[in-house]
Every structure is written in C-alpha cells, then in structure tokens.
Amino acid sequence: MKKILLSGIQPSGKLHIGNYFGALKQFVDLQESHECYIFIANYHALTTVTEARTLRTNTHEVAIDYLAAGLDPEKTTLYLQSDVPEVTELAWIFECITTVPYLERAHAFKDAEAKSKEINAGLMNYPMLMAADILVQDADVVPVGADQKQHIEYARDTAEKFNRLYGDTFTVPKAHVLEKVAIIPGTDGRKMSKSYGNVIPLFATPDEVKGGVMAIPTDSKGITEPKNPDTCNVFALHRLFSTDELPELEMRYREGKIGYHESKEILVRNMDSYLAPLRERREKIAKDAKAVAGILKAGGDKARARAAAKMKEVREAVGLV
Ligand code: ADP
Ligand code: TRP
C-alpha cells in the first residue's frame, strides 16, 4: 500500500520559484511513489485576500500552474480546499481542544504581531484549519518548504491530543522537507515570498526573469577578486538552475575568474532553458479552462467523500451523534 501524501499552496498570488523548488516540484517527484492529494488552500487565502475576484482569479491560475508543473490528475487527486467543507467543521473541533497561548506561539502569528498587523481570528486559527486538511485525509507525509515545518508540528500535536482525549482516530503525519531547497532566497536575499515582493514568478516571461536576476544585490567585489559562492544569492539560484556547470562556476567564483554580471547572464540563460518547456505547457493548459474546472471537480468529489467518511468517525468519537 502506498503512503498517503497531502499538501497545498495558498492562492494568494502568482507562484514563484521558491514555491516550485520548495514545494511543487516535490509533489511532482513524489506522485509515482505515493497516493497523492494536492489542493488549493483557498480558505486559508481568505485570511489575507478580501477581494472575491482576486481570489477567484488566483485560484484558477494556481490550478493551471499545478498542471503545468507536472501534476498529473491520473495520479494525483487535485482539488479546491473549499470543495471539502468538512475541514472547517474539523477545524472547529480542533480549536476546542487547543489553547490560545499555544496558537500564539506560531511563527506566522508572532510575525504578524511583531509587525503590529491587525490579526484576524482566521490567522490565529490558521494552524488548526491546516491540521484539519491533513488529518481528515489520514495523510502520512506532508511535503513543504522549511517555513511550514512548524505548522506540521501543530498538526502532529493536534492528532496526538485528539487521540489521547477521544481514542485512536488520526494518523500522526510527518513533514517532508528537502534541506537543499528548504529556503530559496528572493531577489533581495531574504526568503523568496509573495508577501515580500522579492519573487521571480515561476512562469515569468524571459524579460521578467532577466529583470529579477539583474536586480539581485551582490557585494562590490571586482571580477578578479575571489568570491564566496555560499553567501552569494546569485549562486544560490545557480544551484537550482545551473547543475551541469556548478563545479566550474564554483571554481571560477573561488579563484576570482568571474564577475557578478557574467554570473547573472549565465543564470538568466539557464533559467530560460529550464523554464521554457513549463511555460509552453502552461500556455496550452490555460486555453481549456473547462478541462481545468473538470479536473478540480472530480478531485473535489473524491476528497470530499473520504473526508465525509472520516468525519462520521470523528462525530461519533466526540459525541456529536
Ligand atoms: P509565500 O511565502 O510566497 O506566500 P506560501 O506560504 O504560499 O508562500 O508557500 C507555499 C509552499 O511553498 C510552502 O510549502 C512553502 O514552504 C513553500 N515555499 C514558499 N517560499 C519558499 C522559499 N522561498 N523557499 C522554499 N520553499 C518555499
Ligand atoms: N499553509 C500552507 C502554505 O502557506 C498551505 C497549506 C494549507 C497546507 N493547508 C495545508 C500545506 C496542509 C500542507 C498541508 O503554504
């Protein structure tokens, strides 16, 4: 029996290469060896997106991105989170066995607090909805980027607490984080993130790729000065896109045989050849919006049927029936 793999991405903006290497590419690589459930976390996106039209457009775009990146609906159940409303019921039940101080320890919550943002109750309860996504499908493995690791800990703790209180009901899931791509840096050197405005979109045009790469800040070392590949944000992207040339580039860096401008030009060229086939595939898929909607509908039906069966057990266990 294959292990159950589940993950999702919020439709809060265009997917970027951090999302791709940190999350999406892993989903694609693992879809042969696992029974896969991959969804679009549109309920989660409601914590930040308050315009219906934006949410709808982003959701459709992410669906196309998933398919273009290589998720195969024959192998992976692709669905919208909101087509499984059982997760909101389960999240409520989890919120009732979770303390407020525990939720206040979440990185995302603390970040918002530190920035004196207005924190909605949805943001605070975000980890419980995420736990519900994972546990309602009995997932074994959850592939994510490093920034989501803590959320998987919340899901594990919640499964254990529920099982202790009400009897063995949920599988305790494991995070799957590839250390090599755990944090892809953005064009300003911080973690690439939709919320920092430092992204290179996965489906960027060649001009956007060039603009993004040329904007990456470097130090002021001249061409002949030795450079440290381990601290260079351009080199961090070479590690993803220039795998064949990596030893040579590393040598040229260390021996002062390459300037940042040339390094960036090589990177742009390699990114373009890596991304071109994905871009082409995306264009084809985007032409058939009906087919995309049909794939999500079929996936939603399947995911919902599983969730409904699990919720029957849960309702029984907590005394709602
Ligand atoms: P963002 O920070 O851009 O809003 P999300 O929170 O929607 O991204 O993340 C979606 C998935 O992509 C998660 O699994 C997350 O861990 C991964 N991810 C996001 N940014 C990066 C990055 N810079 N490097 C590696 N993985 C990332
Ligand atoms: N919080 C995740 C993110 O921002 C998205 C997400 C929601 C998720 N529910 C999930 C990821 C369940 C894995 C499993 O990327």
Specify the overall morphology: globular
Give, in order, the helices and strands: EHEHHEHHHHEHEHHHHH
Summing up helix and strand content along with how strands pair, one would put the structural category as mainly alpha
**Spatial arrangement of strands, main beta sheet:** 1-2-3
What would you say this structure looks like, in words?
The protein has 321 residues and is mainly α. The chain folds into two domains: 4-183 and 288-318, Rossmann fold (3-Layer(aba) Sandwich); 203-282, Tyrosyl-Transfer RNA Synthetase (Orthogonal Bundle), CATH 1.10.240.10. It has helices at residues 17-30, 42-45, 52-69, 86-95, 100-104, 107-114, 121-135, 149-166, 206-214, 233-241, 246-254, 260-286, 289-318, and strands at 3-9, 34-40, 76-80, 141-143, 174-176. The strands form two sheets. It has a three-stranded parallel β-sheet. Helix 3 crosses helix 12 (260-286), helix 4 (86-95) packs across helix 7 and helix 7 (121-135) packs across helix 8 (149-166). The model has no long low-confidence stretch (mean pLDDT 95). Bound molecules: adenosine-5'-diphosphate (ADP) and tryptophan. Tryptophan binds at residues 6-10, 41, 44, 130, 133-134, 142, 144, 148, 151.
